[in-house]
Design a protein that fits this description.
CATH architecture: Alpha-Beta Complex
Order of helices and strands: EEHEHEHEEEHHE
Structural class: alpha/beta
CATH topology: Maf protein
Number of domains: 1
Radius of gyration: 17 Å
Largest sheet: 6 strands, mixed
CATH class: Alpha Beta
Number of strands: 8
Number of helices: 5
Shape: globular
Bound molecules: inosinic acid
């Protein structure tokens, strides 16, 4: 049996750190540590995200981080898939558009996607967020995936969250993710679903989440 009470998040994205810290509040035995300052190879995390699948990218990041420290390392690779665009932006979601001067990457991505879907009816705006998580520790890696179904809004709404949140309306809602509170997003998100599954898989592999 392995006992785990600290997990390093193998990500340089501060939004993801906050989201995972909040998601892990359901597992009070586990403390989430930031990779920055803790792992000497942290700067390489973005450069190993070159694979064609979420799973390969998540595994590359969790393994790289785990090589640089003695803590279990959790990584996530995620993206937005629009059905009528054959799954684009998909695994390339983070750098979908070329940002113009003075524009953030997230803003450029949202604008590009809205332009591609301009004039398309609701039936062609179906999309889903996908997240694949990988946990690497002591020579093993576990993984799990989660999905959040929804549609792409006609224009951005809301100020919370990050990335494509202002244009993603989860199924069964009339608000975008950016119009929801963090707690609302975290109760339905693709990362929440994947994390729950990952914790179940870890427990089945005899990994105990417990205080020291
Ligand atoms: P990566 O997993 O770091 O490669 O980043 C995935 C990209 O997908 C992010 O930069 C966002 O553009 C997008 N994305 C993933 N999850 C979310 C989410 O929960 N909300 C909004 N955008 C997301």
């Amino acid at each position: 049996m392995r006992v785990v009470n600290k997990i390093v998040l193998a990500s340089l994205n501060p939004h993801k750190f906050l989201e995972f810290r909040s998601l892990l509040s359901h597992y009070p035995e586990v403390e989430l540590l930031s990779v920055e300052g803790l792992i000497r190879n942290a700067g390489k995390l973005d450069s190993v995200e070159t694979h064609p699948s979420y799973l390969e990218n998540a595994l590359a990041k969790s393994r790289l981080a785990n090589q640089g420290c003695h803590y279990p390392c959790l990584a996530d690779d995620s993206g937005l898939e629009v059905i009528s665009l054959q799954g684009r932006p998909g695994v390339k979601s983070r750098r979908y558009a070329l940002p113009k001067a003075g524009q953030s990457q997230d803003h450029a991505n949202v604008q590009k996607l809205l332009e591609e879907l301009q004039g398309k009816p609701e039936s062609e705006r179906q999309a889903r967020f996908v997240a694949t998580l990988a946990l690497s520790l002591e020579g093993i890696s576990l993984h799990a995936a989660g999905i959040l179904e929804g549609t792409i809004a006609q224009s951005p709404r809301g100020t919370h969250g990050f990335g494509y949140d202002p244009i993603f309306i989860p199924k069964g809602s009339n608000r975008t993710l950016a119009e929801m509170t963090d707690a609302e997003k975290n109760s339905i998100s693709h990362r929440a679903v994947a994390l729950k599954e990952l914790m179940t898989i870890a427990r089945a592999r005899n990994i105990q989440f417990a205080r020291p």
